[in-house]
Amino acid sequence: MGSIQLALSDTAKAEALRTVLARSTQIPVQCVQRPELESACAVVVDPAHLGLLPVPLSHPQRVVLVAQGDEESLREAWELGVGSVVNEGDPVNTVVLAVLAVCLRARPNREQPETPETAKERPRRETSA
Fold first, then answer.
1. Sheet holding 29-31, edge to edge
2. DSSP state string for 11-32
3. Which fold does the domain 3-121 belong to in CATH?
4. Which pLDDT value is given to residue 124?
5. List of the chain residues with pLDDT < 50
6. Which residue from 16, 23, 39, 128 has the least number of CB within 10 angstroms?
7. What Cα–Cα distance (Å) separates residue 79 from each residue in 17, 56, 74, 83?
8. Nearest CA to 96 among 34, 44, 48?
9. Which string of b and e fits 82-114 if b means at least 16 CB within 10 Å?
10. 118 CB neighbour count, 10 Å cutoff
11. What's the CA gap between 99 and 44, in Å, rounded?
12. Which of 26, 106, 2 minimizes the C-alpha distance to 60?
C-alpha cells in the first residue's frame, strides 16, 4: 500500500492534517507539491492541486478534495469522478475520516467473509476421534 499524499495550498492546514494522520495510521504521510495517484493509497488536494493532476484521473477513488463547496469545484470533482469531497471549513478530524476511508477502500481485501461457496472449497481438517 502506498503513502497518503497531501497537496494543499494552505501549508499550515497540510501540516496539521499530516500530524493527525501520522498519529492515526501506520501509513506514511507526506506533504507534496505534485501528488502521484499511482503510488498513493490516498491523495488529499485542494482545487488548485486537483488541476495539476493528469486527466483523466487514473484512480479518482483515491482523491479527497478539500473545497469551498462552490458549484465550480463540485462540478469539476463530479466530472473527474472524485469520490470524496470535504468542505475546507470542516474539522481536521472529518478530513482524517475521509482519508482513512479512502485508504481502507484501496486496500486489497485479504480477509473476505466466508460464504457457503467458499466454505465448500476449503479443505476440511481431519480430526482424530
1. 29-31, 3-7, 40-45, 63-67, 84-87
2. HHHHHHHHHHHHHH-SS-EEE-
3. Rossmann fold (3.40.50)
4. 53
5. 110-119, 122
6. 128
7. 26, 10, 9, 11
8. 44
9. bbbbbebeeeeeebbebbbebbeebeeeeeeee
10. 10
11. 7
12. 106
Q: Which residue has the cell 462552490?
A: 70
Residues 9 and 48 sit within 8 Å (Cβ to Cβ): yes
Lookup: cell for 37 = 495517484
Ranges of each domain in the chain: 3-121
Nearest to 98 by CA among 62, 47, 49: 62
pLDDT of 107 reads 72
Please list, in sequence order, all residues whose beta carbon lies within 8 angstroms of the beta carbon of residue 44, skipping any fewer than 6 positions away. Answer: 4, 5, 6, 7, 8, 17, 64, 66, 95, 99
Closest alpha carbon to 60 in 73, 43, 72, 75: 43
- Cross-strand pairs, 86: 66
Tell me, what DSSP letter sits at residue 51? T
